[in-house]
Amino acid sequence: MAGLSRIEIKQKQRLEDTDRNISEAFQDLSQLMAMAQAMTKLSKSIAAKIEGHGSQVTTDETIQFKSHLMELGLQHQIDVGLASKSSYSSNVHYYNDLARQISSIVRPLMKDRRQEQLTLSDVYCCFNRARGMDLVSPDDILNACKQLEQLPDLQLRLYKYKSGLLVVQNQSCDNEELMNKTVELVERAGALTPLQLSARLMVSVQLARQRLEEAESVGKLCRDESLEGLKFYPNKFITQQATYTA
C-alpha cells in the first residue's frame, strides 16, 4: 500500500506541475498578445502620421520604416513616394530613383549584418519585402543596380563574379581582402564546406561557395568531392613548394 500511495502522490505532483506550467504559459501568451496589439496600434499611428505629412517625409525614410515593420511581422501599406515605373517618362530617371530606394534598404542591412556584399537575389527579396504589395520586377532591380556606380553618393556598386553571380557591394569593398579572409578561415578550420563557411560569415551558401571557388581559381585552396560532399582545403601543394624553394 505504501508503494501505491507514493505513486499516487508523485502523479498528483506531476499533474499540479503541469497545470502550473500551462497557467504560466497562458499568462505569457496573454502578455505577448497585449504587446502585439500595442505595437500594431503604434505602427498604424506612425503610418498615419507619415501619410499625413506627405512631402515632409522622404521616400527613403518611408521604405526604411516599412522594412522595420516587416521585420517585426507587422504589415501596413504606405505608398508615399514609392517609385512606380508608370509615373516616369524616362527609364533612366526611374532606375536612378529606384537605385536610391534600394540603397536605403541595402546599406543599413549590410551594416547590421556586418557584411560587404549581398547577392542580387537577396537584394530583390529584401527590397520587395519592404515595399509590401507594390513589387518591383527582377529586371527593374537589375537595371537599377547597374545605375548604382553612376551615383557615387550611394557608395554601392554592382559586381559580377567570373561565374556570373551578381552581388551588390560597398564601393570600398576589397575583393582581394575578402578572398584572403576566406582562405584564413579555411586554414584555421583545416577544411570547410560552403555551408560551414556561410554560417561563419553569415552570408548565403551561394555566396560562400563563390568565395571558396574564387580562392580555388587562384590556387590558394583546393577541393575534395566525395560522398560526404564538397570540401575546400588549404592548397598545401603551393605552400609546401614555397617552403622547399625558400
TrEMBL record:
GO BP field = protein transport to vacuole involved in ubiquitin-dependent protein catabolic process via the multivesicular body sorting pathway
- Do you know which InterPro entries this protein is assigned to? Snf8/Vps36 (IPR040608), Vps36 (IPR037855), WH-like_DNA-bd_sf (IPR036388), WH_DNA-bd_sf (IPR036390)
Q: Which GO terms describe its molecular function?
A: phosphatidylinositol-3-phosphate binding; ubiquitin binding
Superkingdom of this protein's organism: Eukaryota
Where is it localised?
Cytoplasm; Endosome
* Keyword Protein transport assigned: yes
Where would you say this protein principally sits, based on its record? cytoplasm
Task: Enumerate the transmembrane spans.
Answer: none
Q: Name one GO cellular component term.
A: ESCRT II complex
Protein transport among keywords: yes
Q: Which UniProt keywords apply?
A: Cytoplasm, Endosome, Protein transport, Transport
Protein name from the UniProt record = Vacuolar protein-sorting-associated protein 36
Organism this protein belongs to: Aceria tosichella
What's the encoding gene here?
vps36
